[in-house]
Amino acid sequence: MARSLKVIDVSGVCTVSEFISPADVHDNDTISESSVLQHEAALDHANILNAGANSHPVIDSHIGDGGLHFTEASIDHDTISSTGTNTHALIDDHIADLGLHSSSSERYYGQQIAVTNTTSTVFAVHQTFTTPVLSGGIYRVEWSYGFSNNTVAQGAVIQIRQPGGTPNGDPVQADLLNYVRLDPQDSAGSSRIGGTGTDQENSSAGFLEFVLPAAAATFVVEFRSTTGAITSVWGSKLSIVRVG
Cα(74)–Cα(86) distance, rounded to whole angstroms? Predict the structure, then answer.
């Protein structure tokens, strides 16, 4: 089959001058950098505005420097500045030392207010005070009590002891805290305490420091007559607190 060629006449459509005239083109016009589109991958950090003084390699090196940026778990108290002379381990030991920081759980108190009488020449017990189990260390034991003896002959003996204890500097015996012997030569009257047969009102108070083990400690207030006359004790109070 034969092919034919169709010729279109465009001579009357337009000319180049009808779209862009010489007046539209200026010899001094140039294309500015800001009017040119650039691809993201082609941008150089060093060439853009407000890039700062540090290049990206310098910034990356700074961020990756483990000597400048620590995680919380990697910080060592011993290697940071102004830590003082004590390590955390020493600080923890100091805080936990009840000998330096007394705790209410290491302070105990007992009392026997009522009058107790005896005519025996063998020691009778006025008060027994037993602590809970101690943590062990140096403890201060303080005591006070009142006493009298209703006789014109001889007298009375009152003592406080801690069986098996080791009071510091005790001059009498290993387990003795306090020792009083009374020869009042008085057998008349009635004190405000009442029930003692005499108007005497004597008192004793003091303290000693003990080295006590990690165990319960027992303290005994006991008294006796030297002749069989009435000997009385009242208002005994004992307290113990750890001090070292």
Answer: 19
Residue 188 CA: distances (Å) to CA of 26, 125, 150, 154, 182: 139, 25, 7, 15, 16
Higher pLDDT, 99 or 67: 67
- Residues written for the chain: 244
List residues bridging with 178 in a β-sheet.
Answer: 160
CATH of 104-242, one of 2.60.120.260, 2.60.120.760, 3.40.1380.10, 3.40.50.12780: 2.60.120.760
Cα(199)–Cα(51) distance, integer angstroms: 101
What Rg do the C-alpha atoms of the chain give, in angstroms? 50
- The predicted-structure confidence for 108-124, as pLDDT tens digits, reads as follows 999 999 999 998 888 88
> Does the predicted model carry a pTM greater than 0.70?
no
Q: Where is average pLDDT lowest: 50-59, 67-76, 103-112, 158-167?
A: 158-167
CA–CA distance, 116 with 238 (Å, rounded to integer): 16
By C-alpha distance, which of 173, 161, 172 is closest to 217? 161
SS3 letters across 41-61: HHCCHHHCCCCCCCCHHHHHH
Domain-wise residue ranges, the chain: 56-96, 104-242
| C-alpha 18 chain-centroid distance | 94
The residue that leads in pLDDT, 92 or 215, is: 215
